[in-house]
Write a structure and sequence with these properties.
mainly alpha, about 0% strand
Length: about 500
């Protein structure tokens, strides 16, 4: 395995992030926060130095990535980028050690949204902007940035993209460069429109921008301690709309722009997502009206906002949902790992996997009832292959194994059952919302022990890269030598 290509790609991306760090540094400098500005510039210098070192040391002409290099590069890029993106927090804060800084960076880039910062109101604007920028970059995916670099080097860019995105839908656009361009255009337009609408609703430009930079990637890093609780009803509805839209595949907006309504209407995943949102919002609103005596419009707003925030792994809150009672807590706990649509900015399992599990299960039951019958399960009009079905069930098995191991380890560390379960589901689903006495509404992820923070950081990356990319590297087979000219592995 050629480790050099992994460091070379990582170096290219580190150079980009080193340049980005300069922006919040200048913001703090203009605000008179010289210490915070220096922290950003020092972090930028260190990041740019190591990025340049990796590029110049490991530069070579590679024709393509092998399968193992593809998986290794994806995982290493995330680890290295988080390692260096933690530096502005570490250099510029007296309250965050490197463990907390790494957790904050990983939470931002994986769009989990759980924070180590106890009081955001005393933080420089540069730190708040940096947190938002991390989520904006993480939402569209660091690998999309790599997609823009790798084709120039004649490296298989779409291979690398496949390790992060599970979207198996047909390509709406023919070339990788066109896919990248359209995704970035859609993503940027959504960000600008959301910023303008939030500004017109009530917010100043800076808060409108930071809320937008964390809403579009369904991230959840609010610039306020109270998340979205103190925002006006109009602002909350605007955020609800954009969280819902960004929970759909990004390229769906391109189909709508091309007036291809039928393709969107016939997509099983999108239909399931829309019905799930409508029915769940209705159930939660009715529950609030009957048990908490909440007015109709307020109950709809609370239900819609918090449901879509959790199911898209955004992590914003507009009320204390733990005060809603045990039914609501249990309901939201089940939502934590689900995720929205494949090809969207959200984390989690993704709805299309539940669609495929349902179709495969129904096909299996029909064959049990009529052993000689011929039943063909179809997803969006196409036959569901055994490879796709088995891949989904393997994914779910790995998710369940990861969940159980993480809960046991957190319990071994000393956390209570509710905290262990909700923290695991929240980190694996990249949601950021959790329950329990330690990290619930009355607590903070900053209260967690040192070892728990590192375990949850690993869970965040595992959930963002959808398990397979990381688990493949744990197999001894992945590290055995390949036989030359055969494409096989020596045993």
């Amino acid at each position: 395995m050629r480790a050099g290509i992994t460091f070379f790609v990582s170096g290219c991306i580190l150079i980009i992030f080193g340049a980005i760090m300069i922006i919040p540094g200048f913001l703090d400098f203009s605000d008179g926060n010289i210490g915070s500005a220096k922290a950003f510039w020092q972090a930028a210098g260190v990041t740019f130095f190591f990025g340049s070192l990796f590029v110049t040391t490991f530069y070579n002409k590679y024709e393509r990535l092998s399968v193992r290099e593809m998986y290794l590069t994806t995982s290493m890029v995330w680890l290295l980028v988080c390692t260096f993106c933690a530096l502005p927090f570490f250099f510029g804060s007296n309250s965050l050690d490197y463990t907390d800084s790494f957790f904050e960076a990983m939470s931002g880039l994986t769009t989990m949204g759980a924070t180590m910062i106890r009081d955001l109101s005393v933080q420089p604007r540069g730190i708040l902007l940096w947190r938002a920028m991390l989520q904006w970059c993480g939402g569209v995916g660091i690998i999309v940035i790599a997609l823009g670099i790798l084709p120039l080097l004649r490296i298989g860019g779409m291979q690398l993209y496949a390790t992060e995105s599970s979207d198996k839908s047909d390509k709406t656009l023919p070339k990788t460069s066109q896919i990248i361009g359209m995704i970035m255009i859609i993503y940027t337009i959504f960000t600008i429109v959301c910023t303008v609408l939030l500004y017109l609703s009530e917010l100043g430009w800076f808060e409108a921008l930071t809320f937008s930079l964390t809403t579009i990637p369904t991230g959840g890093f609010a610039p306020r301690n109270s998340s979205a609780m103190e925002l006006s009803a109009l602002s909350q509805w605007i955020m609800t709309f954009f969280m819902f839209v960004c929970g759909m595949p990004l390229l769906v907006s391109y189909s709508l722009f091309k007036k291809n309504w039928q393709a969107v209407k016939n997509d099983m995943q999108i239909r399931t997502y829309a019905y799930f949102f409508l029915y769940s919002t209705g159930i939660l609103a009715l529950y609030l009206i009957l048990t908490k005596d909440v007015p109709l419009l307020d109950s709809l707003r609370y239900a819609a906002f918090n449901f879509i925030s959790i199911v898209t792994s955004s992590g914003f809150l507009n009320s204390d949902i733990e005060a809603w009672g045990s039914f609501a807590i249990m309901f939201f706990t089940f939502l934590l790992p689900i995720g929205a649509c494949s090809g969207s900015t959200s984390g989690g399992i993704k709805i299309f996997r539940f669609n495929i599990m349902y179709l495969s299960s129904m096909q299996y039951l029909r064959r049990k009832i009529l052993p000689h019958g011929i039943f063909i399960a179809k997803y969006n009009g196409k036959p569901l292959t055994e490879e796709i079905s088995s891949g989904v069930f393997v994914f779910m098995a790995i998710f369940l194994l990861s969940f159980l191991l993480s809960v046991l380890l957190l319990a071994l560390i000393g956390l209570d059952f509710v905290t262990s379960v909700s923290a695991t589901l929240s980190s694996l689903g990249n949601t950021g919302i959790a329950f329990g006495p330690v990290i619930g509404s009355g607590g903070s992820f900053a209260n967690l022990p040192f070892s728990a923070k590192w375990l949850l950081s690993y869970n965040m990356m595992l959930g963002r890269l959808e398990y397979m990319t990381v688990f493949v590297l744990l197999l001894p087979l992945a590290w055995r030598k390949e036989k030359k000219n055969t494409g096989t592995t020596a045993f």
